[in-house]
Amino acid sequence: MTLRPILIHPDPRLKTVTKPVERITPEIGRLADDMLATMYDAPGIGLAAPQVGVLTRLFVMDCVKEEDAKPRPMVLINPEITWKSEDTATYEEGCLSIPEHYAEVTRPEKVRMRWTALDGTVQEEEFEGLWATCAQHELDHLNGRLFIDYLGPIKRQIITRRMQKLKREKARA
User: Fold this and answer.
1) Which terminus in the chain has less CB density within 10 A, N or C?
2) C-alpha distances out from residue 167 to 7, 49, 97, 99, 145, Å
3) CB of 59 within 8 A of CB of 25?
4) Which residue has the higher pLDDT, 144 or 65?
5) Distance CA 55, CA 49 (A)
6) DSSP state of 97
7) Are 45 and 60 a contacting pair, CB within 8 Å?
8) Which residues are identified as catalytic?
9) DSSP string computed for 36-91
10) Is 22 helix (H, G, I), strand (E, B) or coil?
11) Pair 59, 46: CB distance under 8 Å
12) Quick one: three-class SS letters along 99-154?
């Protein structure tokens, strides 16, 4: 497994609608392994392929937060929402591509997703709470959308300027 660099906003790849995975190859398996390792190292609870510069419809997540609980790493290939609740929930979201910035985002409280697993089987599961928020956040990445796109234009502009400054500082370091 290789830790991959995480793209920082603004980067045009983060605003690109990704292409479906045509077939599951050993390279897709390696990408998923690398993404899980990168996500855990960051640390984060989700990571989408565009965040590591790969414009394909794949994301990983693991929202288990209890210290003594067994991790539940998930790899979702070509995910889609098949149902969402009318009830909503608001969570303070963050993003590995927008470090140290958080904002409240309101989304459906529950979603049902269908995706292809690494073994080629079609999976479907209903997510709620943090899992539902994370799944929707990561699916947004595959559609070229960031959590800051849910914010007002001024707040979004302030965060974008801070990220541009962070990228300049990192480039000089």
Assistant:
1) C
2) 10, 20, 11, 11, 20
3) no
4) 144
5) 6
6) T
7) no
8) 138
9) HHHHHHTT-SEEEGGGGT--BSEEEE-----TTSPP--EEEEEEEEEEE-SSEEEE
10) coil
11) yes
12) EEEEEEEEEECEEEEEEECCCCCEEEEEEECHHHHHHHHHHHHHECCCHHHHCCHH
Domains of the chain: 12-172 (3.90.45.10)
Tokens at residue 92, please?
A: 């303070």
> pTM of the predicted model, to two decimals?
0.96
1 — pLDDT class (breaks 50, 70, 90): confident
- Pull the structure tokens for residue 56: 């394909």
Alpha carbon distance 88, 76 (integer Å): 23
Name residue, tokens 């394909």. 56
Q: What is the pLDDT of residue 143?
A: 98
Mean pLDDT of the chain: 96
Main-chain dihedrals φ then ψ at residue 5, nearest 5 degrees: -65, 140
